[in-house]
Design a protein that fits this description.
The chain has 3 domains: 200 residues, Up-down Bundle (Multidrug efflux transporter AcrB transmembrane fold), CATH 1.20.1640; 101 residues, 2-Layer Sandwich (Alpha-Beta Plaits); 89 residues, Multidrug efflux transporter AcrB TolC docking domain, DN and DC subdomains. It has 17 helices and 15 strands. The chain is α+β, with helices and mostly antiparallel strands. Strands 5, 6, 13, 14 and 15 form a 5-stranded antiparallel β-sheet that branches. The longest helix is centred in the C-terminal third of the chain and has 32 residues. 33% of the residues are buried. Helix 1 packs across helix 15 and helix 12 crosses helix 13.
């Protein structure tokens, strides 16, 4: 039968490897060298977490200083006129290339004086990237506007999430901080191809029209007005002065004090507003303060108590997060430091998904070591020997190499699928995929245990020669090895090749475990028998 012929061919190949010491050494050396080469060459740059993306986009436009709600509403009307014709439209025009805007299933818009945000979803999930590009291009038609678009995520926030490289630029001088942030923004656009960049605050210019109220401290002291009292008066006359809070059932209600004119006050009337002094006098506010028109920032962001501007840099999908972090560190931060565009007084810290990647990878590394130690000690208990488990442990690197080959093969074949009209497959090497190696450590040892345990029994209980003992062990254990390997492969196949909604997050785990088990099965029938023969022969020679 076909199965019998395959079994006979496999056993003949194993017999050829074990037939002489030269073949055994060649098998051990080649398997070891190949695994080292694969791990060295095929380990891809890491991502943090899978994006877990939803088929919707969040497109934000940040206005430059000086815009008000009326101006942003006018822009919102134009954006609505741009999107509305594509609402539930026929996809034929987009497919022909007549328009860059794909059909939109729905959209909603939020308008504020400094920002405009559109949340939209395409009719076809595959058109998400095109929708992001179309809205970003439309936003950039408005002078001075900054566009930031991102996909919805079920894992992280909708602000860049698992691929966001955050640059926290901190210092004491806002002018220096903003200048450094502008330089970093420009440099990020140079080193990455069409990155998505968001700044917090949204504007990177000290050009927001402001009013500064500068007290006459000597005059205020003569009238018995403290700095706190004067500040509260100015607040009450303009935006409202905070008084206290109270709770109505479970609701917290803030209490503010307003003047009779309320918040609607003309700027030129501000110096004429009446102020009541502790002595009972009524004076115009202009007698106590100077109201100066100036430009500055409308908000100050602080991180750990320091004035900070944060840039969220999301590299293109073709650039893994680990590579992106290296480019930001060397080609952006160090480059701008050398050119003097980021002075020594300004601190730059890389945070966000970048430092979370490093922390998670360090935690995984310690988990690998603990798992390896536990597996080894369990096998010591099984074999009642400290040395034989080391034979089995040697199969783990081969399994890891097999998993990396599988990941590379999936991405290589997946990149060619659009040629035959199928969707592209691009599986990142993220932290969830790396869990596949942790799973492999507990699964790839199963088949080697069968072979080594049987061979040791043959030597110690049947008094067989090492070579004959290993041959018999492979022959007897071949069927269980084949059965466990094949059933595992078929069990993982749907996860790898036809994942459903949500399960695509675990495709990386599936492909690493699948190909890792294949690699371990091959080494169980090639390198492991050769290594076991060598160890048993060495042990026999010492006992003799």
């Amino acid at each position: 039968t076909g199965g019998g012929k395959l079994r006979a061919s496999t056993l003949a190949a194993v017999g050829g490897i074990l037939s002489n010491s030269r073949n055994r050494v060649a098998s051990i050396v080649s398997a070891t060298a190949l695994s080292i080469l694969v791990i060295w060459l095929l380990t891809p740059p890491a991502e943090y977490l899978p994006e877990g993306e939803e088929p919707k986009i969040f497109a934000t436009m940040n206005a430059p200083p000086g815009y008000n709600l009326a101006a942003m509403q006018a822009i919102a009307t134009e954006i609505e006129a741009f999107v509305q014709p594509h609402l539930q439209a026929d996809r034929a025009a987009y497919a022909r290339g007549d328009t860059d805007m794909p059909p939109v299933a729905y959209y909603n818009m939020r308008v504020r004086p400094e920002t405009l945000r559109v949340i939209a979803e395409p009719v076809h999930a595959n058109d998400v990237e095109a929708l992001m590009d179309a809205l970003s291009a439309k936003y950039r038609q408005y002078p001075g506007m900054r566009a930031f678009t991102t996909r919805g995520s079920i894992i992280s926030s909708n602000q860049g999430g698992t691929r966001s490289i955050n640059l926290d630029i901190a210092g004491s001088d806002l002018g220096e901080i903003y200048a450094a942030a502008q330089a970093a923004h420009r440099r990020a656009e140079e080193i990455f191809d069409n990155p998505r960049i968001r700044s917090r605050p949204g504007s990177l210019a000290l050009a927001q029209p402001l009013l500064q109220v500068q007290p006459h401290w000597e005059r205020a002291a003569e009238l018995g007005l403290s700095a706190e009292a004067l500040g509260f008066m100015v607040a009450a006359l303009t935006d409202g002065g905070y008084v206290d809070e109270f709770f109505l059932d479970d609701d917290k209600i803030d209490i503010y004090l307003y003047s009779a004119t309320g918040r609607e006050i003309a700027l030129e009337d501000l110096p004429q507003l009446p102020v009541y002094t502790p002595g009972g006098d009524i004076l115009p506010l202009g007698a106590l303060v100077d109201v100066v028109e100036t430009v500055d920032t409308s908000s100050v962001r602080r991180v750990n108590g320091r004035r900070t501007v944060t840039l969220n840099i999301i590299p293109p999908r073709s650039v893994p997060l680990e590579t992106g972090v290296q480019k930001v560190r060397s080609e952006l931060v160090e480059y701008l430091r050398e050119r003097g565009e980021i002075p020594s007084r300004v601190d730059v810290v890389i945070s966000g998904a970048a430092d979370q990647l490093d922390a998670t990878r360090e935690a995984l590394a310690s988990n690998y070591l603990v798992a390896l130690l536990v597996i080894y000690l369990l096998m010591v208990a099984i074999f009642n020997h400290w040395g034989y488990p080391l034979l089995i442990i040697t199969c783990i690197p081969i399994g890891i190499a097999g998993g990396l080959v599988g990941l590379a093969a999936l991405n290589g074949v997946g990149a060619l699928l659009p040629v035959i009209g199928l969707g592209k497959i691009a599986q990142p090497f993220d932290m969830i995929s790396m869990l596949g190696f942790l799973i492999l450590m507990g699964t790839v040892v199963n088949n080697p245990i069968l072979v080594v345990h049987r061979a040791v029994q043959n030597v110690h209980q049947q008094a067989m020669a090492p070579l004959a003992a290993v041959r018999e062990a492979v022959e007897v254990r071949l069927r269980p090895i084949a059965m466990s390997t094949i059933t595992t492969l078929f069990g993982l196949a749907p996860l790898v090749f036809i994942p459903g909604a949500g399960t695509e997050l675990y495709r990386g785990v599936g492909v690493i475990v699948m190909f890792g088990i294949v690699g371990a099965a091959l080494v169980t029938l090639t390198m492991l028998p050769a290594l076991t023969v060598a160890v048993l022969q060495y042990q026999a020679s010492r006992n003799a």
